[in-house]
Amino acid sequence: MFLLDGKSLSKKIKSTLSKKVEEILSIDHRPPHLVAILVGNNPASQTYVSAKEKACDEIGFKSSIIRLDKNISQEDLINKISEINLNNDIDGLIVQLPLPKHIDEYSIISAISVDKDVDGFHPMNLGKMVIGESCFLPATPYGIITLIEEYGIETNGKNCLVIGRSNIVGRPISILMSRNSKFANATVTLAHSRTKNIEKLTEGADIIIVALGKPNFINKEMVKKGVVIIDVGINRIESNKTKSGWRLVGDVDFESVKQKCSFITPVPGGVGPMTIVSLLKNTMLSYERKNNLNI
Predict the structure, then answer these.
(1) How large is the angle between the packed helices 43-59 and 271-291, nearest 10 degrees?
(2) pTM (two decimals)
(3) Which domains does the chain have, with CATH numbers?
């Protein structure tokens, strides 16, 4: 069993980005600027946004958080996005999801400038991804692909099972894994919560990417020897062994499955750090495009 250490790899990538920022500053350019809009007081969203802000600070990016009341109207939120779209000193914009129920997420995502959509959720970026054009890739799938590439995982012709069909993870990664490229070319099956007899699919899979949101869903009886498992799930469960009274687990029962795996991501410390660093990579790409730089 080999651990896919996203925490360690993300530090390596951040070091590279930090050096790029130093080069940018040396030619009297401003640093890349990422803005996050946070609507309401969702604790998980606040944690995620703070983590992104910290990551920006670590590598020398400028970061701004715009906190808006949970009762803001959809029109006012779109107006704020339009204001940021027109600001040439901002390179990346993310609107932290989920949004309050009275706001349509698709309308908000579509309102973000495609050139500042560093989360990679805009319909135009997703469309370009489907046809293999250059675009901002969705951050979590981008992080998964980077892990696969950096650890040299063989994917060519392998049976890859993606569990979960969200537009944020499941659907994009199923497309990326089927591309005609070195670290793809897999035969991809997309399963979800309504899939019947899912054990038959997991037992035959060479690679399993699971983003279902069900704690410890995958166990050792469901997988074959040598399987590669990438666990996107982040679930809080009660625990009497921690001060907080809870602990984080993935969608995979790590302790029971790890001995059967050739590669596996831990939770936490696997895909999570790679998601944030992919957001930073997209922001740098936006900055370089805008300033005609290739650092």
Answers:
(1) 60
(2) 0.95
(3) 28-114 (3.40.50.10860), 139-272 (3.40.50.720)
Peptide bond into 215 cis (omega under 30): no
Q: Which positions are catalytic? A: 52, 96, 119
Note whether 39 and 99 are within 8 A (CB): yes
Amino acid at site 240:
N
CA angle (239 as vertex; 236, 241 as ends), nearest 5: 130
Spell out the per-residue pLDDT of the chain, length 295, in tens: 899 999 999 999 999 999 999 999 999 999 999 999 999 998 889 989 999 999 999 999 999 999 999 999 999 999 999 999 999 999 999 999 999 999 999 999 999 999 999 999 999 999 999 999 999 999 999 999 999 999 999 999 999 999 999 999 999 999 999 999 999 999 999 999 899 999 999 999 999 999 999 999 999 999 999 999 999 999 888 887 777 888 889 999 999 999 999 999 999 999 999 999 999 999 999 999 999 887 7
Token match 């920022």: residue? Answer: 21
Q: What are phi and psi of 208, to 5 degrees?
A: -120, 125
Judge whether 143 and 278 are in contact, CB under 8 Å. Answer: yes
Which tokens hold the place of 172? 């994009």
Q: Which amino acid is at 57?
A: D
The DSSP-derived string for 66-129 is EEE-TT--HHHHHHHHHHHHT-TT--EEEEPSPPPTTS-HHHHHHHS-TTT-TT--SHHHHHHH
Q: How big is the CA angle at 249 (ends 56 and 190), to the nearest 5 degrees?
A: 90
Cβ atoms 94, 279 nearer than 8 A: yes
